[in-house]
Amino acid sequence: MASSSPARSDPRPLVLLVEDEVMTRLAFAAMLESDGFRVVPVASAEETLEVLRAGLAIKAVVTDGELSPQGLSGFELARRVHEEHQIGVVLVSGHVAPEASELPPGARFLTKPVHKATLVHLVRDVVGSEPGLLSIRVDAASEPVVEWTLTPRQHEVLALLMQGKSNRDIAEALGLSENTVKVHLVAIFKVLGVSSRTEALLAGLRRIQGKPRQSS
Domain 152-209, what architecture? Predict the structure, then answer.
């Protein structure tokens, strides 16, 4: 008898993570995977709907409320997910929380900045809930947070650096000059408190995993 594939035998709840900002997507995925979830990361609402149509046993969807303006917003996506798939959604946004009536049944709202324990709690909540429960609002402003003080462009540069890309590769990927990439790296090193590419890579991984920097 043929053995089950790893995906079929993996007992962890499957969560679809929708975030168009690379470093935030990595950070949220690490938070969820470290607490027993299996994460499928995508960058747009359109990718989300395509994955859901594939018939995977998705237990929850976590989405940024402000996705690319060229497609569906996270709020529109949440309504589609509820109407078409009856799956619970956790909406994450840095804007003012909507009224509960503006969210689809089964949805939860989480304000940025995001604390790992709150995100995990809400995902576990929607995984274990039934459609039709009242939505809730959570404000994590008073909790410890995972802070990223880099600009969006610096996040992109750091993400490519963490993939082992050279300055030339990063410049070509982002449509920048190598000198501009070097300027961004200097700023990144300053924010992360490091002095080399290797230290920046390790600092980025520690931030994603929620681990403090070790003193030398």
Answer: Orthogonal Bundle (1.10)
